[in-house]
Amino acid sequence: GNSVTQMEGPVTLSEEAFLTINCTYTATGYPSLFWYVQYPGEGLQLLLKATKADDKGSNKGFEATYRKETTSFHLEKGSVQVSDSAVYFCALFDNYGQNFVFGPGTRLSVLP
Amino acid sequence: NAGVTQTPKFQVLKTGQSMTLQCAQDMNHNSMYWYRQDPGMGLRLIYYSASEGTTDKGEVPNGYNVSRLNKREFSLRLESAAPSQTSVYFCASSEVGGGEQFFGPGTRLTVL
Fold first, then answer.
1. Is residue A95 over pLDDT 90?
2. Do A99 and B4 touch (CB under 8 A)?
3. Which end of chain A has fewer CB atoms < 10 Å from its terminal CB, N or C?
């Protein structure tokens, strides 16, 4: 079946540090890939997405590239801010089963 | 636009009690979803409704029922609550399957 694996957290960084959160997936077809962010006490919000191989999604300084050969969609940001502290979820949409599958989430804490 | 709203925000039940979680969206979306979020497990799909009048089981449907009352509203019912159903429940909607999902703020449910 479909699955999403993310690096375990929590991840703690200093402000302006470089961020990478790894995400790999298993899917039967060619899924769409997403990163969602959850701030404390809130629901999830879409951060970025990519719908086909080699697409790059970007938003608010975050980027992720759909790598079909390595089945990966790693999230990166060049310089994190305290306000980026949140839980980040990698997810895929299975176009055959019409279902979203979420990873377990990675908690990021950015210290001033 | 309120987006996706959920009621209640918090609920405590005793084992065996029943309750209904309400969800409504004002974005004229076709698809609606119910997820539960448990520590270390990300979001798991309970039920979804691809369009008004249809509902389908997700990954963890046991112990739950749903009703797509109209295009706006999608309720989740626990007929006989169990401690294993202690979780945070999120409702989401999207214009079409595979599109960006918009999440509600969540309902934190504790079953004693």
1. no
2. no
3. C
